[in-house]
Amino acid sequence: MVMDIGVCTFLTDYGIDPLVLARGVEERGFSALFLTEHTHIPTSRRSPWPGGAELPRQYSHTFDPFVALGAMAAVTDRIALGTAVTLVNQHHPINLAKQVASVERLAPGRVELGVGPGWNKEEMAHHGIDPRQRTAQMLERIEALRAIWTQEEAEYHGEFVDFDPMWSWPKPTAVPPVLVGGGGPTVLDRVLSHGDGWIPLRVRLRELDAFAERIGELRRRADEAGRGHLPVTIFGGVPKPDALDSYAKAGVDRVLFTLTDRDGPDAEAQTLAELDSLAELL
Asked: Which Pfam family would be a valid example here (predicted)?
């Protein structure tokens, strides 16, 4: 199968200029540019970072993804612009719906919303979210977003989100696909019930056989439910030709390569050189 290749990055205040990056991604022929999100990082380190002992600096320096994507929309014409992933519980759905719709109007048909509940319990708590309810809250917020995007007089009444009929424009020209993040045992249930695709983070090559079985399960269940094809995007793929072949054989639709975090006066040149190297895999 033909597989799309894009990039994902922690866009920081000390790294490459966002517009230079967006132009560079599109000019080199990549299909997508996705941004990560953290509203902030609590100084408490009680929640362990899933990636290791020391939390990288980039986590606390990220741009607001929707402000950055709106600017990127103005200097690109082709690439998909998305999030990997938006921590939807850290936004009121009324505000988030308008942010996403506004970016989509600047990049019609090119915006995708990756979503996840997050891992940092202190970060959630600062937003008033009980970590024990994070998944249920996320699912309600996804439902509320779609109501606002698609209904002339939107309303939603749930356990965590509740609003009476209201007006909110702009509406997106096309409802942005919601890509559900995660790799746990019940994630496919959420993809099927609330998603338009799946965006798991970093699938190890030694785990690809089991991952291929999960993709097969997703496709079978989607077909049985009349959902059609639900695309799979891997966030944090291995940038090697044999890895790409393995992803394609497993049924992956798109791979996002994560750009290296860079600082200093040469950060921009080094990032563009990294894009040149990655583009050789296209």
From this structure: Bac_luciferase
